Amino acid sequence: MGMPAAARVGVIGGTGFADIEGLQDRREVHIATPFGPPSDAYTLGSLQGIPLAFLPRHGRGHHVQPTDVNAHANIFGFKRLGVEFLISVSACGSLREEFAPQHIIVPDQLYDHTRHRVSTFFGNGIVAHVSFAQPYCPALGDVLFESGQDVDVALHKGGAYICMEGPQFSTKAESEVYRRWGMDVIGMTAVPEAKLAREAEICYATLACVTDYDVWHDTAGEVTVEMVVENLHQNVDHAKEIVRRAITALPAEREGCPCPTALANAIITAPESVPPAQRATLDLLVGKYL
Ligand SMILES: [Zn+2]
Questions:
Q1: Does residue 219 carry a pLDDT above 80?
Q2: Are 167 and 188 contacting, i.e. CB atoms less than 8 angstroms apart?
């Protein structure tokens, strides 16, 4: 409310990615949402001349655990800022030999294995079923992958990300099951973030930074926070370089992906049945359709 469209591109940083350097005209803005406060203030500024909004997913100082990340507020805040493209950066474990620590994956599939998270903006009298066969924006994923070609990092395109509840890392039995399911990387934060981004009609894709081999790998031993953080510091520099390149490569018009019109045929509730309070709450998302 009263918020100008401040940025077309958003970046949400995961573990180890708590800030974005080199922003011109840097400023911070706190955004109130109907879902409570986002993880922190958004940092606004421009990078390579492109207006950008940055948010650390776990808050500055990393004080919000995955289960408690207020993804509803975080995504709603980006929407309010005018963000159309949201680049997510997150740490993950690898479930495949060829995805080694310090590699980066641009996943194209997602398996929701969370247990305690509300994963929709809808409910309370309004029902919507968005298509989610392609959970990550294929167009934004292409831009991220292409932008990484000149960065000195092993970058892989495609793969299935399984989102576990955490905060504990996997048991060996779980890790083996996920591998048999065909999963490629494992993390704790893609859900409900990706689902809510789609409901908000924001193009969303991820740079999944491999920090460890989870626990299935013979050489891996136990996954420890120390191991994760050490590999992540290497990873984050690469991810930031890819982000820097990607934001200048984004198309002027969004096309070739399901995101911008995700809600067009998704709302099943008769408009006259939608409770006025809920219509008001979700106006930013559904106003153009109701
Ligand atoms: Zn898209």
A1: no
A2: yes
